[in-house]
Amino acid sequence: MTPRLPHEKKTVSFSREAVNVFFHILTRCNLRCAHCYINPDQHGADTLPLETICRWLEAFSPATRKANLIFLGGEPTLHPDLALAAAHARKIGYDSVTIDTNGYLFNDILDKTTPDTIDYISFSLDGATPETNDAIRGKGSYEACLAGIQKANARGFATSLIYTVSTANLHELAAMPDLAGRLGISRMFIQVLGIRGKSAGDKAAQDMGQVSREQWRENVPAAAMAGADHGIIVTYPKVFLGEDEVFECAGRVADNYFIFPNGRVYRCPLCEDFPLHSLAFENNRLVATPRVNEADLFELDIAEGCVMNRLVQPGNLSWRPDGRPKYRIACCMLKEEVRPGKPDRTSI
Ligand code: SF4
Ligand code: SF4
């Protein structure tokens, strides 16, 4: 491995300068991952027609401001018109288009689109070995994901990797940067497990718990630095705020939209299991929903930091004897980013 100058680590602050559109174009999937957050009762089970996808994409006025689009599912490559939807997004002005996939790459998607249209194909992998990954994501999914990454790289697509950390795979996180480096991955996203969606009541998912604050701090920043050693940009959620760090709710200060096939549009992903969406598509127009909704929660200031975290996953908090929280939980969308330092030519 080529030695590098020091990596740059920073907290990525929220901005209203760009709109980020996370678009679930269907909820159908070929896998049954233990931690899947998709909840058809709340998100719908439809596959959106191309015409509807195009109209909804236009609602965010991508021609007039910086706009980033992430296609999600279910498995978005199961949508037969994904490539046409991506081409339309580019045509109307989206600055970046990403496809998040489990790696099976259905409908010959690599033949139907190009690296000029798609900035990143992002692959979900939850273990450095088939044993660990497949216990979470299903038999054969490790091999399929690696084959998908190799095919995408061979066609010139930039690829990224998403690793959802839980007690079931923390032990393999340290091996991921090396694997990602060998696979030619250029970005890695480490995520925190959220017990939501149809997996929330599932025994397998409950056995997978969130890692503790100590485990997170011991393992995640080190893995990010190791990824940067391989020339990979690594992003991970901040999760735990330090004493002097400011809490901000992205629902108040950022422009993020999480769209589902039933027309619900959320500003906060932790609200997605509840009918708390603050916006909805009606007749292809984006309209505000009646209160009470998630926007009312964004306004609440509590000692524990994120209100929704306090409500839906209080297990990651702990309190002092006097009832005050020992630390605050950051907005789930606040990220740390580690960028690799340039190769150090002086030491070669
Ligand atoms: S987590 Fe993603 S790949 Fe896994 S079952 Fe859910 S939608 Fe499919
Ligand atoms: S995760 Fe918490 S802090 Fe972030 S948008 Fe949702 S409610 Fe606000």
Automatic annotation (TrEMBL):
> PANTHER family given for it?
PQQA PEPTIDE CYCLASE (PTHR11228:SF7), RADICAL SAM DOMAIN PROTEIN (PTHR11228)
Enumerate the cofactors the protein uses.
[4Fe-4S] cluster
List the SUPFAM superfamilies.
Radical SAM enzymes
One GO MF term: catalytic activity
Domain Radical SAM core: from-to ranges = 13-244
**Protein name, entry field:** Radical SAM domain protein
Keywords, ordered alphabetically: Iron, Iron-sulfur, Metal-binding, S-adenosyl-L-methionine
Q: Which PROSITE patterns match?
A: RADICAL_SAM (PS51918)
One Pfam family this sequence matches: Radical_SAM
